[in-house]
Design goal:
The complex is a heterotrimer of chains A (about 300), B (about 300) and C (about 250). Chain A is mainly α and about 300 residues long. Chain A is built from 13 helices and two strands; from the N terminus they run H-H-H-H-E-E-H-H-H-H-H-H-H-H-H. In chain A, strand 1 and strand 2 form a beta hairpin. The longest helix of chain A has 27 residues. The radius of gyration of chain A is 20 Å and the shape is globular. Chain A starts with a helix and ends with a helix. In chain C, helix 6 links the parallel strand 7 and strand 8.
Chain lengths: ~300, ~300, ~250
């Protein structure tokens, strides 16, 4: 498989984590413009762990994801009282603060006579654990997708579980959910933490794929894209955000002929799509229809 | 102390531009109950039309201003039809996402039209700064401030002394009731958008003429400033939008002076975050009703 | 069972409840009536913890509940329906009832994610039983948003019953229904909600209230102006004045 295709597929994989993170919060009814902050925190921290402290990849990734989850939990608690646009702008403000903090963040150690570490706006170079340990780009892509499949499986289990329905209940009617005897605060914060963790996984992978991090990589554009993927792919299933990612990064990359006009085409497509499918391609109604149809087909065969 | 006051003066001047942007967001949110992420980009497109005239035809500043406004209005109408009118009621999120998609479109369109990173913009005025005692007042700033004040007065007059303004306020309060009273809600929204785009066009021109340059990222920048100012002062409140804009301007200038460029935007976002956490309604907030507040606190 | 003592509450300077006293014993079926804005739904909101009362106390089984969080109060054995109907529109009928079981004491936190098959089967059977009780079993896979109003109200009732509550608070269960539909709803409440539960029912439809309730309590401007047997209360001069002063009573 040629390197370019592997690169695209890896990108799709990593961004999918971010999209799933935004999707989980969307299920609970919150539009977060800031998941890229947790992506960034994990990227930097896991990079620091492997490139500066000599940790192995797995520990670094785990540390990054846990830190992202912790930060997300804190933000989740702080923003509990906020609804709708207020919540969204608060997440935006937080994410921009994180990005700007990385611009002034300097932390370097000397390794083999060279300074290594985040250097503010200059970025964080040489996160080379993957290369130093002879993992090829293809192998790395497989690792990314293996973890992605695990996460997706967990999402599918979630859909069927009571916890998953609690998240959707939060999204539809928070007051009613409290009236079912459920501690809404606890579940909202839980959702924030899990979403942060998932974004963190993606961030850790990204740091070691790109080997170079710059604060401007983690701008609002990244976060809004992550959000939009779920909203156009549909909120009925975890496959929705992946479809969104695939459409943007996959499909449009493929149309090299329209390179200079890619955003014009994509933007137009999305706008038209939303006129006919305001809740995305695989929205709850469509998924419900699929489930019913499948069940009828299965029962008919008996 | 002199510095502090000078910074406040500068902040208020710059903030008047932000206030205009915030007013645009506020009216859209008030009337449509939706967020328009393409507001900044549509202004930017207008600005690119303006700069095109400036670069190709050496147009006069007034012509550039008019072109900016016209361009912004046309772009705004496009956004309104595609993202808001075409999407059925109740799908507010879809409108927001659609406006994001169109934002991407407009940004790329601007880059396609004018491929260089930066383009010049005509200066507002050529006169020297005015001195008032120990303080300086840049004449472009003063011009921007005066025009902003005039524009706010115009908006206020339109909203409170015309039939159109009455319908806008009626639709903002209760869309269904307004419809039942015979108000053509679609038309109101369309023209409210046009008005807001025009205001944005003027705001954009003023800001860009002060900087004397425009880039394709102006759209994102303007969106941020407008949103932050609106949320600082209190969403849905026009005086709040103005106050928010002025405060944002002051905070930016002060933190730039005392803390340096790296901390300028950081301070603004930090302030916004604090305000939202502590007082979600904004500084002048359209205060949540007691019922809402009480209910939110327990759940 | 439920004791409301000297309850008062206000919003934005408007007094919503003033020195309200109400005692509900186990097995009672109490009607709560009064003109619009008299505080009936507010009383429900305060009992279920959505608002913390400005003054007074509420006790459930001699335990002070005013001041507890709503979800804590619900788990003590209270369930309610809503005046403007609250159901999960994007979920199916059976799921709407199923979700009410999430907080049953026999569902642990771990089981929210990994369900035990035997318990789940029991729970699902219970859901089915409830749906049959309210005649919605055939619509179990329909999305709640696609039901008729009458069916949606029945769904709300089934959901309220799912936790086997001791106290049922029904807020205008026949709201928006025609006289014929109201009769059916009244019959359903009599057959399914009243037996084995203590009920407080808010309604504007006097025939329905009179037929279901052993006792009626009347509110006006947040105060209790009458309480007693339906026959007595509905002829009470102050009650008549309160209603005729507004819109006149609704006979359904």
């Amino acid at each position: 498989m040629d390197d370019y295709v592997v690169s695209i597929l890896s990108n799709i994989g990593m961004i999918s984590f971010l999209a799933l993170s935004a999707y989980l919060l969307l299920l609970t009814g919150e539009i977060s413009f800031g998941q890229q902050a947790f992506f960034a925190i994990s990227a930097y921290l896991s990079g620091i762990a492997t490139a500066m402290w000599g940790w192995p990849l797995w520990s670094g990734l785990l540390l990054g994801a846990l830190a992202a989850a912790a930060a997300a939990t804190v933000i989740g608690v702080l923003t509990l009282r906020l609804r709708g646009l207020y919540f969204s702008i608060a997440t935006l403000a937080f994410a921009e603060m994180v990005r700007l903090l990385f611009v002034i963040f300097h932390y370097q150690v000397v390794i083999d006579g060279e300074p290594v570490g985040p250097d503010g706006a200059e970025g964080f170079r040489d996160i080379r654990w993957v290369f130093e340990n002879n993992i090829s780009v293809t192998e790395y892509m497989v690792i990314i997708y293996t973890v992605l499949v695990i996460v997706l499986t967990l999402f599918f289990l979630l859909e069927r579980s009571r916890l998953g329905s609690i998240f959707r209940m939060l999204g539809e009617d928070t007051l009613l959910t409290e009236m079912q005897g459920l501690n809404v605060i606890r579940f909202k914060v839980l959702a924030s933490g899990i979403a942060g963790f998932i974004a963190g996984i993606g961030g850790g992978f990204y740091a070691h794929f790109a080997t170079y991090l710059e604060p401007q990589n983690f701008s609002v554009m990244l976060g809004v894209h992550a959000l939009v993927y779920g909203l156009i792919g549909g909120l009925g299933t975890a496959l929705g955000p992946l479809i969104g990612v695939g459409l943007d990064i996959g499909f449009l990359e493929a149309i090299r002929a329209i390179q200079g006009y890619r955003m014009i085409v994509f933007g137009g497509l999305v706008a038209v799509l939303l006129i006919f499918m305001p809740r995305g391609i695989l929205d709850e109604e469509r998924i419900h229809w699929f489930r019913l149809t499948w069940r009828r087909w299965r029962d008919a065969k008996r | 102390m002199t510095d502090f006051i000078q910074n406040c003066i500068d902040g208020v001047m710059i903030g008047s531009g932000y206030a205009l942007l915030a007013i645009g967001f506020t009216i859209i949110f008030g009337v449509l109950r939706r967020v328009n992420l393409s507001y900044g980009p549509s202004i930017m497109l207008g600005a690119f039309v303006g700069t095109l005239l400036y670069v190709q035809f050496q147009a006069h500043a007034v012509v550039v201003a008019m072109a900016t406004v016209v361009g912004a209005v046309l772009a705004g109408m496009y956004v309104e039809r595609v993202c808001f009118w075409a999407i059925r009621r109740g799908a507010a999120v879809a409108s927001m996402v659609s406006s994001f998609a169109i934002w991407m479109q407009l940004e790329e369109l601007a880059i396609v039209m004018l491929p260089e990173r930066t383009y010049p913009f005509p200066p507002l005025t050529e006169t020297a700064p005015i001195e008032i005692g120990p303080f300086f007042l840049r004449s472009e700033h003063l011009t921007m401030f005066v025009v902003a004040v005039v524009l706010v007065a115009v908006v206020h007059t339109v909203l409170y002394r015309t039939r159109f303004g009455l319908s806008v306020r009626a639709v903002s309060e209760n869309l269904l009731a307004a419809r039942f009273m015979g108000i053509n809600v679609d038309a109101v929204m369309f023209w409210a958008f046009a008005l807001v785009s025009a205001i944005g066009g003027v705001a954009g021109f003023l800001i860009l003429a002060t900087d004397q340059q425009v880039t394709p990222y102006f759209g994102l920048w303007a969106t941020f400033k407008g949103l932050i100012a609106m949320m600082l002062g209190g969403m849905g409140s026009l005086p709040g939008a103005i106050l928010g804009g002025l405060i944002l301007g002051i905070v930016e200038v002060q933190s730039l002076w005392y803390l340096g460029n790296d901390y300028k935007d950081l301070s603004a976002y930090f302030l916004l975050f604090l305000v939202l956490i502590i007082r979600p309604g904004g500084i002048l907030g359209h205060a949540l009703s007691e019922r809402e507040r009480a209910a939110f606190r327990r759940v | 069972m439920l004791s409301v003592e000297g309850l008062s509450h206000h919003f934005d300077g408007v007094e919503a409840l003033v020195d309200l006293n109400l005692q509900v014993a186990k097995g009672d079926v109490v009607g709560l009536i009064g003109p619009n804005g008299s505080g009936k739904t507010t009383l429900f909101n305060v009992i279920t913890g959505i608002y913390k009362p400005a003054g007074g106390r509420i006790r459930f089984h001699d335990r002070q509940i005013s001041g507890l969080k709503p979800h804590e109060i619900i788990t003590l054995g209270i369930a309610r329906t809503f005046q403007n109907l609250r159901i999960y529109k994007r979920m199916t009928v059976s799921d709407n009832v199923w979700v009410a079981q999430h907080s049953l004491p026999d569902v642990s936190l771990k089981e929210l994610f990994f369900a035990r098959p035997d318990k789940e089967r029991e729970h699902r059977e219970e859901v089915e039983r409830l749906l049959e009780l309210v005649f919605l079993a055939e619509r179990r896979d329909t999305l709640a948003q696609n039901l008729t109003l009458q069916d949606q109200r029945r769904l709300e009732l089934a959901r309220a019953l799912a936790r086997s509550p001791e106290l049922l608070l029904l807020d205008e269960p026949a709201g928006g229904m025609t006289p014929a539909e109201t009769e059916k709803m009244a019959a359903l409440i009599r057959d399914v909600a009243v037996p084995g539960h203590t009920c407080i029912i808010i309604e504007h439809k006097m025939d329905m209230i009179a037929s279901l309730c052993s006792r009626i309590c009347v509110l006006n401007f947040g105060r209790k102006i009458a309480e007693g047997r339906p026959d007595d209360v509905l002829k009470h001069p102050q009650v008549l004045e309160a209603y005729l002063g507004h819109e006149g009573m609704v006979h359904a």
